[in-house]
Write a structure and sequence with these properties.
Distance between the termini of chain A: 88 Å
Number of strands of chain A: 14
Structural class of chain A: alpha+beta
Helix content of chain B: 10-25%
Helix content of chain A: 10-25%
Oligomer: heterodimer
CATH topology of the largest domain in chain A: Immunoglobulin-like
Radius of gyration of chain A: 30 Å
Shape of chain A: rod-shaped
Strand order of the largest sheet of chain A: 2-8-7-4-5
Chain lengths: 173, 419
C-alpha cells in the first residue's frame, strides 16, 4: 500500500511539475509573442510637431495604419500599405493620432502638422504660398478691409502700385 | 568724346531698364498659423513661432500685436533683419493673463510685415508689401458643463451608408459624464427616421466624437438631419442638409490615346450626369503627385455643359516632357454648381501609354481588426485558470482516495488486516 501511495504521490508531484512547467512555458511564450508581434511605431514619435505636411509613417510588424483626429479612433482613415512598414501621406494641418494593425494592434501615438500661413506678392499677383486657406485683407490709407479668401496655391490679381499692406491670416474658426 | 557719351547713354538705359523691369517679390510665411490655448486660473506662457523667408533673400521683418488680448502679449523683437541664408528663424512671444476674462474665445494676432532690407520702419514703406499673421486663440472655460459641437455627414456611395459624425469639445470647467445624440431625418416636414448615436464621456478641454450610421431605403434627394445632443441633462441642437443616393455626377472612365512619353498627353475623362437637368460650367481639375507627394502637375480643363442623363467627355492636357516612367498618385476633381466630386487614382506612366487604376485610401467605418493584447492576456489567464483547476481537482481526488485508504488502514479494515 505504501508503495502505491508513494507511486501516487510521485505521479501527482510529476503532474504538478509538468503543470507548472507548462504554465511557465505558456506565460513566457505569450509574453514573447506579444513583444515580437506587437507593431512598433517608429516615426513620427509621440507628440512630435512635424515641419511638413507630407509624412512618411514608419512602423514594424504591420501593413495597415489607422489615422484619426480622435484619440478613440471613432472614424479612422485606414491605409493598407503596399510596402509593409511605410506609408507616405499628405496631411492637412491639425492634430492626428495613429496606430498600426498587424496580428496585434499597437498603442496610439499623436503628432501635429502645424499650419503655415504664407503670402507672396509678385508683380500684382498675390499667391497663397502656405498650407492653409487664408483670409487676405488690405491695409491702406483708408484703413483695413477684407479682400479675398485664397485657397492653397490660389492666385489673385491686385493693384500693387498703391502703398498697401496685404495681410494673410488663417481662414476658418 | 562721342564714345564716352554713348557709354553713358547705354549705362543710363540699362539702369532705367533695370528699374522698370526689376521684379519686386514680397514673400513671407509664418508657422503656426494659430496657437490655441486653454485658459486656466492664471496663464503665463512662452510660445514659439517661426518666420519663413520664402524667397531666401535679405529683408527686414517688423512685428506688431493686435486684437483683444494685445495688451497681454509681448513679442521678443520689434524688427528683425533676415539674410538670404536664413530659410526660417524662430521667435517667441509671452502671454500673461490673469483672471477676469469672460468665458468663451478671446483672440490676438501677431503680425509680421516684410520690409526691404534698408528700411527700418513699416511706416517708411512707399510701395505695397505683404504681412502674415499668427493667431492666438485663448479659450476661457464656461462655468459648469458646456459642449462645442459640429455635424459632419459622409455619404458612401459604394455601400449606400450615410454616416453621421458629431465631433465635440468640452469647453466647460466640469467634465461631461455622458453625451449622446438623437438624429432625426426629415424629408420636408415629415420625419423619416430617428437614429441613436453611441455614448461618450468627455473630460474638460478634451475632444470626442459620436457616430451613427444609416442605411437609407428612401428615394434619392435632399434630406435634413436634426441632431439633439444630450449631455448630462443639457441639450444642444444642430441641423444640416444632406443628399441620399448616388452623386449627381460620376466618373465613368478615364483614358489617353496615342500617347508617347515626352509629348503632351490628352487625358479624356468620361463623366456621367445622373441628374435630369443639365449641369452648366463643369470643369476638371486633376493634380498629379510624385512618390514624395510633391505636386508635379495641376491640370485644368475648359468649362463643359453636361447634358442630362448622359455621358460627356471632358478633356485636359498633360505636358509629360519632364515626366519619367513610373507610378504617380492623382486627385481628380469635377467642379460644378459650386460643388465638386473628388476621386483618387494611381497613374502609371509607360513609354507609350498611361494607365489609371484604383483609389488611394478611404475613410473606414469598420477598421481592420487585430487581436488586442488584452484579449490575449484574458485567453492566457483563462488557460492558466483551467490548468490549475484541472490540476487541483486531480490532486483533491487523489488526496481523497489515498485518505480513505489510510482511514481504512487505521480502523483495522485495511487490506493487510483482512488478509
Amino acid at each position: 500500500m505504501k508503495e502505491i501511495n508513494k507511486i501516487n504521490k510521485r505521479a501527482i508531484t510529476r503532474i504538478g511539475k509538468i503543470a507548472i512547467a507548462a504554465q511557465f512555458v505558456l506565460v513566457i511564450g505569450v509574453l514573447a509573442f506579444i513583444y515580437f508581434c506587437t507593431p512598433k511605431l517608429d516615426y513620427p514619435r509621440n507628440n512630435e510637431v512635424l515641419s511638413q505636411s507630407a509624412v512618411e509613417l514608419k512602423f514594424r510588424n504591420a501593413r495597415v495604419v489607422l489615422i484619426d483626429e480622435n484619440p478613440d479612433f471613432t472614424s479612422p482613415r485606414e491605409i493598407d500599405t503596399e510596402n509593409a512598414g511605410m506609408a507616405n501621406i499628405t496631411f492637412q494641418p491639425g492634430v492626428y493620432y495613429w496606430k498600426a494593425v498587424g496580428i496585434l494592434e499597437s498603442s496610439a501615438k499623436r503628432f501635429t502638422i502645424p499650419s503655415e500661413v504664407g503670402l507672396e506678392l509678385d508683380n500684382e499677383i498675390l499667391r497663397n504660398s502656405g498650407n492653409v486657406p487664408v483670409n487676405v485683407s488690405v491695409e491702406n490709407e483708408f484703413g483695413l478691409s477684407g479682400l479675398a479668401i485664397l485657397d492653397i496655391k490660389v492666385e489673385y490679381e491686385v493693384n500693387e502700385s498703391e502703398k498697401a499692406v496685404y495681410r494673410g491670416e488663417q481662414h476658418g474658426g | 568724346m562721342a564714345d564716352s557719351k554713348k557709354i553713358i547713354f547705354v549705362l543710363a538705359a540699362v539702369f532705367l531698364f533695370g528699374i522698370v523691369f526689376s521684379r519686386f517679390v514680397f514673400a513671407l510665411g509664418i508657422t503656426p498659423g494659430r496657437t490655441t490655448i486653454d485658459f486656466s486660473s492664471k496663464l503665463e506662457r512662452e510660445v514659439e513661432f517661426s518666420i519663413i523667408n520664402s524667397e531666401s533673400k535679405n529683408m527686414g521683418v517688423a512685428f506688431s500685436v493686435q486684437g483683444e488680448l494685445a495688451e497681454f502679449i509681448r513679442v521678443d523683437s520689434d524688427i528683425e533683419k533676415f539674410s538670404s541664408n536664413d530659410a526660417s528663424r524662430q521667435f517667441k512671444f509671452n502671454i500673461n493673463l490673469s483672471s477676469g476674462l469672460s468665458p468663451g474665445l478671446h483672440k490676438a494676432e501677431i503680425i509680421a510685415t516684410e520690409l526691404p532690407e534698408d528700411i527700418g520702419d513699416a511706416d517708411m514703406m512707399v510701395r505695397a508689401t505683404v504681412s502674415v499673421v499668427t493667431q492666438i486663440y485663448v479659450y476661457v472655460p464656461y462655468p459648469g458643463k458646456y459642449i462645442e459641437s459640429d455635424l459632419n455627414i459622409v455619404n458612401k456611395e459604394d455601400t449606400n451608408v450615410v454616416s453621421f459624425y458629431i465631433p465635440m469639445t468640452s469647453r466647460g470647467k466640469e467634465d461631461i459624464g455622458k453625451a449622446s445624440a438623437v438624429i432625426e431625418i426629415y424629408k420636408g416636414e415629415s420625419k423619416i427616421i430617428s437614429l441613436n448615436t453611441n455614448e461618450k464621456g468627455i473630460k474638460s478641454g478634451e475632444r470626442a466624437e459620436l457616430i451613427a450610421s444609416w442605411n437609407p431605403d428612401v428615394a434619392p434627394g435632399e434630406y435634413n438631419a436634426v441632431v439633439n445632443l444630450i449631455y448630462d441633462n443639457q441639450t444642444a441642437r444642430l441641423e444640416r442638409k444632406f443628399n441620399v443616393g448616388n452623386e449627381s455626377l460620376a466618373v465613368v472612365g478615364i483614358s489617353t490615346n496615342e500617347f508617347k512619353l515626352g509629348q503632351i498627353a490628352k487625358i479624356k475623362i468620361l463623366v456621367q450626369n445622373k441628374l435630369s437637368d443639365p449641369v452648366h460650367e463643369a470643369n476638371v481639375n486633376m493634380r498629379i503627385y510624385d512618390p514624395e507627394l510633391t505636386s508635379i502637375a495641376d491640370l485644368k480643363s475648359e468649362n463643359y455643359e453636361l447634358a442630362p442623363l448622359a455621358n460627356t467627355e471632358m478633356v485636359t492636357y498633360w505636358d509629360t516632357e519632364k515626366i519619367e516612367k513610373g507610378e504617380y498618385s492623382s486627385e481628380l476633381k469635377i467642379n460644378f454648381d459650386k460643388k465638386f466630386i473628388s476621386k483618387g487614382f494611381k497613374v502609371r506612366v509607360n513609354a507609350d501609354s498611361i494607365d489609371f487604376t484604383g483609389v488611394g485610401f478611404a475613410v473606414s467605418s469598420q477598421p481592420s481588426k487585430a487581436i488586442s493584447t488584452r484579449t490575449i492576456l484574458f485567453i492566457v489567464i483563462g488557460v492558466l485558470v483551467l490548468i490549475n483547476v484541472s490540476w487541483l481537482v486531480y490532486w483533491m481526488r487523489n488526496r481523497k482516495s489515498s485518505g480513505k485508504k489510510e482511514e481504512r488502514k487505521s480502523s483495522g479494515k485495511g487490506y493487510l488486516k483482512l488478509k
